[in-house]
């Protein structure tokens, strides 16, 4: 199939469905997406593929100059939030692949559609994955490698806004982990109040967290002879954002909202009962990347990171 067939021939459209319709439907690729693809590949077909709560997704089948297949994965979202989501995911995945090659699909580009109004895309390589959770040793060894990548200037944060689902994260750079965590906590409280209205009970509980719990658990991490360093985080690592690659049975992660933080942060999601990464995964991880000191606070920190 030629790229001309895949390019829209009519005027501007305005909906997300116009960019990628229902699953298993052939789609037209916007000229911005075509321009973002490597110059040595030729597009053969593109179909809506997979499911997402916030976006539309597609598989783009292409071939190299020698005729070998080269598939890509396309994700689109609308509006200013959608634009920031696509940018944040691109930068997150780029950082992860640089730190731990193969642990995530390699990003190709992000940008804005020309044929569909206010629609934005993220493009990466397509990885053929099983719908099963990775072996605990496979994912934890790779995660420990990811967490070995530290912030270039020793600060906590990230250079762009990232999104946990559709929720923007406050990645403003901070000199300490305590400061960064408190900034993020206050940001989420502000979003909660804007959505649900004021709550005296929430204010009371939040005050205890901010004034007592967070300083008590996080401040000691940066005191003493072995202070923590800002480690690259996936940011939303639960069993729904990880899978197993068909070709080699290795762990693959996706849908990241990266930042530089305490290396134990990514384990917070694993505490929750809905997550299939249980205590055995946490134990496998700490055998690769030991808990920070004070070690006796590890479980309490894990509970904090799960909130």
Write up this protein:
The structure is a single chain. With 307 residues, the protein is of the alpha+beta class. Helices cover 34% and strands 19% of the residues. The protein contains 9 helices and 12 strands. The protein has helices at residues 3-6, 16-19, 31-36, 79-99, 136-147, 177-196, 200-218, 279-288, 298-305; strands at 42-48, 56-63, 69-78, 107-112, 119-125, 129-130, 163-164, 167-168, 231-233, 242-245, 251-253, 259-261. Strands 1-2-3-5-4 form a 5-stranded antiparallel β-sheet. The protein has a 3-stranded antiparallel β-sheet with strand order 6-10-11. Strands 7-8 form a two-stranded antiparallel sheet. Strand 1 (42-48) and strand 2 (56-63) form a beta hairpin. The longest helix is centred in the N-terminal third of the chain and has 21 residues, at 79-99. The model is unreliable at 1-14 (pLDDT under 50).
């Amino acid at each position: 199939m030629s790229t001309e067939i895949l390019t829209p021939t009519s005027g501007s459209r305005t909906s997300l469905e116009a960019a990628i319709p229902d699953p298993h439907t052939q789609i037209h690729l916007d000229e911005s997406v075509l321009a973002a693809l490597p110059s040595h590949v030729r597009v053969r077909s593109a179909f809506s593929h997979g499911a997402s709560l916030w976006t539309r997704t597609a598989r783009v089948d292409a071939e190299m100059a020698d005729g070998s297949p080269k598939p890509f994965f396309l994700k689109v979202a609308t509006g200013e939030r959608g634009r920031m989501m696509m940018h944040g995911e691109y930068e997150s995945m780029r950082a992860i692949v640089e730190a731990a090659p193969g642990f995530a699909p390699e990003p190709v580009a992000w940008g804005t559609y020309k044929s569909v109004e206010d629609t934005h895309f993220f493009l990466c390589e397509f990885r053929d994955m099983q719908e099963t959770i990775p072996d605990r040793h496979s994912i934890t060894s790779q995660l420990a490698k990811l967490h070995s990548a530290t912030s270039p200037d020793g600060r906590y944060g990230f250079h762009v806004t990232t999104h946990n689902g559709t929720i923007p994260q406050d990645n403003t750079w901070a000199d300490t982990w305590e400061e960064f965590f408190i900034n993020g906590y206050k940001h989420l409280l502000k979003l909660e109040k804007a959505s649900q209205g004021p709550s005296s009970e929430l204010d009371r509980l939040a005050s205890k967290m901010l004034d007592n719990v967070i300083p008590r658990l996080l401040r000691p991490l940066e005191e003493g002879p072995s202070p923590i360093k800002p480690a690259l985080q996936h940011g939303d690592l639960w069993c729904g954002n990880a899978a197993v690659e068909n070709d080699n049975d290795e762990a693959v992660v996706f849908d990241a909202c990266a930042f530089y933080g305490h290396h134990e942060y990514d384990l917070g999601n694993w505490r929750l009962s809905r997550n299939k990464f249980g205590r055995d995964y946490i134990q496998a991880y700490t055998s690769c990347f030991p808990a920070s000191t004070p070690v006796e606070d590890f479980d309490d920190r894990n509970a904090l990171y799960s909130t």
